[in-house]
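Dear colleague,

Following up on Tuesday's group meeting, I ran the structure prediction for the two-component complex that the binding team flagged. I've pasted the input sequences exactly as they went in, so you can double-check that nothing got truncated or mislabelled along the way. The structure tokens for the whole assembly follow below. Feel free to forward this to whoever is handling the docking comparison.

Inputs:
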Amino acid sequence: MVKKIYRVIILIGLCVATSAWSADRNGPTWSALKKEQQSILSSLESEWGNFDAQRKAKWISIANQYPKMAKDEQERIQRRMKTWASLTPEQRQVARENYRDLSRLPQAERHAVRQKWDEYRKLPEDERRQFAPEGSAVRN
Amino acid sequence: MNEDHVGARIRGLLNEGLTLDATKISQLRAAREQALERQRQESWVLIPVWAGRMFAPSGGAARFLLPLVFGILVLIAFQYLQTSQIVDELGELDAAVLKGDLPIDAYLDSGFQSWLRKSTE
């Protein structure tokens, strides 16, 4: 009798733990987000259901930082959010690594990078291709 | 006289047949009912006793169950903290990429990266 009760308790515990774990695994649904978070991340609403828990948590973290950002930074985030979400995990990783590399440059050089990008964009495509390793991406 | 001896003696007397008066029969019946009632109560008491043993500082189950539960809780807490730390770092990094001066394309263009390296050398 006692053993039976013991088994039932363990079974109930396992069910509760499994359902909690599975809810946590999928992350919060769109409707579970705060109104403010929904408004910031509105361009991701249609894709939200396809994101895993970690990706959702990352976007929520960005939404939480958003109110403290300057107006122009907020605008850039809004403009780039959808593009960023549409990249493959590998592309996002490449972008993060290049960002890290560039952020290690001395401050004076770092400020000049934006100008350099404009300069590079003005080069003819053939010339730009010369700098790209074979088979790698050149953005148009 | 040991227990086996007493048992054998009682069995022998019972086999021979007892002639008891009504008072003794009613006393025996009352004692039996009392014993049965106590047994019923004990079976219900077993559950809290079992639960108590599980969480008591001493006892068979507690010896392995408490460290096991504690170990699982520590593991869950560690994993949760590690995951939230990774997510926070990733969130900060992605936010920095997205809000920065440079467009996303610049970070993805391998030609620009090598052109930049060459031009700053």
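Chain B is about 85% helix and 0% strand.

Cheers,
M.
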